[in-house]
Amino acid sequence: MFCEMNSSLLYTYNAYKNEISSLLLNNNRTGIVTSEIDIITDVYPEEAIKIGKLLSTIEQIIETGKSEKGEHSILCRHNSGEELFVVIQETYESLQVIIPAIYSVLLGFLVLEEKWENRKKNKIDQHSASELKEIEVERARIALERDKIALAKEKYELSQMQLKMAGIQKDLRKNILQNNIDILKIQHISYGDIPPAANKTIIQCSAQKSNS
């Protein structure tokens, strides 16, 4: 597991292997969203320990919020300051946990949480039309109950992931600050099987280092 590598080993692995691993990502299953995250730093290529710690932090965030369907890669671009290009292919529910944590831990920026009440409103409303026949009404009622059960399960699983992530975020943020790992900007865009009522900040967001 990448998060168990020491900093220097993790840096070396990503410097030479990510070009290959990024090409292997091909998770096109139903329910999968691809998120491309660009992390611009003021850390230089020769600062291997800092880069290693940054990579380890990102890996730990992803591992904490991942689902069984998830895949990801991290590519190091050796510019004047290191730039990390992270590609995550995950369920939308997992990205709701991973993406805000990346912004929060690395940049101290908070991404708004989704309002779950509207998660499946459109689908549920389809079952309430008055012109439905009696048999259709019964089928709609059953489908509605199934939707409610599925939504309750999703909400529970999301809350558990959020609690788990909250338990490590403070220490991860402290580690970034103590090691003087300077993050200048983070931006991302997500695409794929995105729910109609998805939070726009999970789909796309950009934040930069505060000068205050």
How would you sum up this structure, described in words?
With 212 residues, the protein is an alpha+beta fold. It has one domain (2-114, 169-208): Alpha-Beta Plaits (2-Layer Sandwich), CATH 3.30.70. It has six helices and five strands. The protein has helices at 7-24, 48-65, 92-107, 121-125, 134-178, 200-203, and strands at 32-41, 71-78, 82-91, 183-192, 204-208. The protein has a five-stranded antiparallel β-sheet. The protein is elongated. Residues 112-124 have low confidence and may be disordered.
List the helices and strands and how they pair.
Elements (H helix, E strand, L loop, with lengths): L6 H18 L7 E10 L6 H18 L5 E8 L3 E10 H16 L13 H5 L8 H45 L4 E10 L7 H4 E5 L4
Antiparallel strand pairs: 1-3, 1-4, 2-3, 4-5
Helix pairs in contact: 1-2, 2-3, 2-5, 3-5
Radius of gyration: 20 Å
Domain module tally: 1
Helix-strand string: HEHEEHHHEHE
CATH topology tier name = Alpha-Beta Plaits
Number of strands: 5
- The helix tally amounts to 6
Morphology: elongated
| Strand neighbour order, sheet with most strands | 2-3-1-4-5
Structural class: alpha+beta
- Strand fraction equals 15-25%
Biggest sheet details: 5 strands, antiparallel
**What is the distance, rounded to the nearest whole angstrom, between the alpha carbons of the first and last residues?**
37 Å
Detail the poorly predicted runs: 112-124
* Mean model confidence by pLDDT: 77
